[in-house]
Known about the structure:
Elements: H1 2-25, H2 32-124, H3 141-153, H4 157-170, H5 177-190, H6 194-207, H7 212-227, H8 231-244, H9 249-263
Amino acid sequence: MTTRLNSRAARRARLAPGLVALLACGGCFATRNDVRVLQSDIATLRAERAYGDSARAAQIDRIIRQLSLTSDTLRSLATESNKFQGDAREGLREMREAISQVQEVTTQLQRRLQEVRAAVEASQQPAAPVAGDSTAGTPGPNQLYQLALDQYQRGSYQTARAGFEDLLKRYPTADVAADAQYYDAESFAAEKNTAAADSAYAELVTRYPQSPRAAQAMYKRARLKQSAGRTSEARALYQELRRKYPRSDEADLACSAMASVCSKR
C-alpha cells in the first residue's frame, strides 16, 4: 500500500510540471509528445483511482460477507437455543405429568391399603364381646383412621377431628398416628382456625419427627406464618425445614418460598 501511494505521488509530481508548463505557455503550442505524456499520466491517475475504489469496494464486500456469515451463524444458534429451550420445557412438562400420575397412583394404593387394613382389623374382632375384656368391640387404629378420614373428605371436620383424636389417644404409636395428627391439623385449617392448626402441626413435628408428614406439617406452619405477614417466623421455619428434612419435596418448595419471603423484607 505504501509503495502504491508513493507511485501515485511520483506520477502526480511528473504531471504537475506539465500542467504548469501548459498553463504558463498560454498561447504557446505544446508538442504532441508532451500531450501524449500528459494524457498517459492522466489515464494512469484515473486507473489508479479506479483501482483504489475497486479495492475499497472489494474490502467492503468482504466485510459485508463476513457480517452476513456471522448473522447467519447467530440466527442458527438462536434457532437451536429456542429449540433446546422448547424441548426442555416439553420434557419438564412431561416429567411433571409423570410425577403427578405416580403420586396419584401412590395415593390410591395407600388409600386402598388403608381400607384393606381396616377390613382386616374388623374381621379379627370377635363377633360378641368377651366378659372382662374392655377392648372387645373397640375399632382398631386403621378402622378409626378410615372412619375419620371418610368424615374429613365429606367436610364433616368436627366429626373427623373427634375420630382422629380418639385414635391418637388409644393408639399413639400406630402406623397411622402421624397421618391422624396431620389431618387433625388440616381440619382446623379447613375451618380457618389458623391458631389451632398451627398448634396441631407443631405437635406432629414434635411427636412424630421421623414421619414424612413432619416435613409437610412444618411447611404448612411456615405458609400460615407467611400468609399472616409474620415473615421472620416463616423464614425461620423454612430454614429449619431445609436443615432437618433436606431431601423432602417440601425442602425444595421452601427454597422458592424463602425467596418470596426475603423479597418482602
